[in-house]
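Before drawing any conclusions, I looked closely at one protein's amino acid sequence and its backbone structure tokens, quoted below without any editing.
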Amino acid sequence: MGTSYRYKCDECGYEEEFFIGGSIMSRNYAKKVEEAEEELRSAALYGKFGETIQQIMKYEREKVYINCDTDLYQCMDCRRFSVQMAKELSLNNSDFTLSVEFRHECPYCHSAFLRKSRGSITFCPGCKRFTAQLVTMGKFE
């Protein structure tokens, strides 16, 4: 089951709906998530993200949790929203907790994306003001 979000700006009239996640019945979505998780796991194991993460993947692999589910992101420059696959790796050890979220880049202006928390107000992609509001949230299959 996925979640839908609709943001609306009363200042400029911007309105857009986003669908995050996928249905359990959707093989295509589940397959994409599995492929992305394996790609992230392999890249970490072969040192793409540095020696520390590589060592963790070699010696603590069974304790590492990888998340590549989709989520809503917003560009911090152009303010556009985009649904992206999360790229997260976390490890809970008795001595420490490590959580890494790899950078996402805006496909429009190549600036950094930030994952949207489910706050009710955010920046509007239309007028760029802090006036876009989450007006509906729902579930879909």
